[in-house]
Amino acid sequence: MADMWNVTEDIASNVKPSELSKYSPGLLTFAAIVTGFIMLIGLFGNLLTVVALLKCPKVRNVAAAFIISLCIADFLFCAMVLPFAISGFWTRTWSHGGVLCKLVPFLRYGNVGVSLLSIALITLNRYIMIAHHSWYSRVYRKHNIALMIVFSWMFSYGMQIPTLIGVWGKFDYDAELGTCSIVPDDNGRSAKTALFVIAFIVPALLILICYARIFWVVHSSEQRMREHHRSQTSQGTLNNGSDVKRSTIKDTRETKARRNEWRITKMVLAIFLSFLVCYLPITIAKVADSHVHYPVFHITGYLLLYASACVNPIIYVIMNAQYRAAYAAALCCPLARLTGLTSEKWNERHGYSFSNTRTVLSQVSLGESRVDPRGISAPGR
Asked: G-protein coupled receptors family 1 profile domain: which residues (predicted)?
């Protein structure tokens, strides 16, 4: 205990008033209040998402496992990191001892890594589903999904172990930032740049490459289908009334399936873009204004960074009708009524059909859950 108080006193003695004075008391109070709202929204939204995904069969599928991992990481960020951010804005220093000064940044960087890797895994799921569907059932088996999730957590936290034990940078109080972060070790080494490249740049590039490929595949597929339809029409192959009716029904189902796949893909893209919007401003601020000439720019960057932990549930509500229904059921309805989300009537009302046997893509889409016509559960369930 005495050592902890000594560390706290050392931290207080190293504070540079000239740096902290660049943030006005009013601005820091505003930041603390906004961070508090973000924390409450993030705790409620992410917990509700996990409950809805676990209890509602309609939205419990392969990709939901990665969504749950993402929500848990964001929930832990709100519960274990943001309270100390609020304290830092309020007191303008670190007053929680040396142990937490190492643990809190360790959790902060780890949860950020898990969040981005979870988004990358969801995007990879979409890419394989759309561009290499023949691989899907082999890749997304239950044990493979579990390994992917475990890897995302172990990698995000494991790559920080050298910093935690002080052999590649160290977690300590940064007097310039006024909070605990990664600082150079006794040999002048720091892991900040490497962590940024490995845990941010590489997953972001993977996501961008996957989406470029997804857009290309979808565009090419639509072109081929239009050409095929025109070819059939021009050759008079649909000269029978019943054939025309069957073809129209098939085209309608395929159109609904493609529209739903595209809508879900856009939702995942929105999650990634929101991540970039939340993380890039503070990164730019640290590089372009390292001496804090524009405090509002830095505070805005911090608030956007914290908002990343609560924005995903909002995206689900805005862009996905199934998640809205699952949230409403989890909040307002008894557990017995949650199974209503799997009813035929509910599916038809939202444009889905169990009789679509042309493709099993919709069985494993984000926010969907299908049953194979043969009575076998969809892959990865």
From this structure: 45-316
